[in-house]
């Protein structure tokens, strides 16, 4: 079966929302791909002071991306350090928590429930038989208790997903990323990358992969996956002598914390279906060109998707699933201090198409 359709699916799933601090629009499109494996989260009010946005680009299947869209923000909110204002540590733990939750009987059942119809039916039946909470447990925000069952030894999914998340609280922005989805901020019209694309050829990634017993062939880990970090893909995380952050493929996210200012125009999160076609600065310029003429932010996103869609599958670029979230800050930025927020770094270095620089600051979680 070909990975591409004979004609692209251009129907779009779009959404808009706003509160007193920001407004957002999003859009996603299957495009030329035979299946839609992107997912997203957009919650204006994770709590009364905090907004949460995330894009998840699945590979080998859609279920891990959908699992992250459903559960990652809940695990951030549940974290004990979240309640004392440590957003960076809470989201860092939540990335690893996704891999933990997708193991065992409960993880298997939840992934089945997020799959195709036949998988959903199987998951529902096993939920009725094995779940201690019964068939409604999928919707319960519980402690993810261990379940006995025929899949108790399930080591986790063989498919995976990138994850790029932005959390906004007053003037604090925390970005967490694993994979090659990307977060970019526009400051006075200039694009600054707030995430780094995790490719196997990067020195730090290559070193970890080789130490974990893997190899890189044609830019792919073990000749298979062209990412160095992702959630899921558990066959690459089976070295029992290594911690999760040392595996040849890891869910370990870069964490970047930024202090927002009134020069910040908007924030973009998008999967690589967009970045394959436009540089960070090109996308920021395109948004500035249309943001005041379109009726909504989602309409701007839709224009971007149409701009990136390839006329045919001959070239490869513009043939992927596409998902984009556009978050516009309302001025002035709320500079109310977070009680326990650490020192916030500023963004330094201009990005351009020749060599887009990562924003300076705390990009690795200690």
TrEMBL record:
CDD domains found in the cross-reference section: PP2Cc
Start and end residues of each PPM-type phosphatase domain: 23-329
Main enzyme class: hydrolase
Catalysed reaction, written as an equation: O-phospho-L-threonyl-[protein] + H2O = L-threonyl-[protein] + phosphate; O-phospho-L-seryl-[protein] + H2O = L-seryl-[protein] + phosphate
SMART domains in the cross-refs: PP2C_SIG (SM00331), PP2Cc (SM00332)
GO MF terms held by the record: metal ion binding; protein serine/threonine phosphatase activity
One biological process term in Gene Ontology: signal transduction
Superkingdom of origin organism: Eukaryota
Coiled-coil regions, chain positions: none
UniProt-listed Gene3D superfamilies: PPM-type phosphatase domain (3.60.40.10)
Region (Disordered): 336-366
Family: Belongs to the PP2C family.
Protein name listed in UniProt: protein-serine/threonine phosphatase
Native source organism of the sequence: Brachypodium distachyon (Purple false brome)
Lineage of the species this protein comes from: Eukaryota, Viridiplantae, Streptophyta, Embryophyta, Tracheophyta
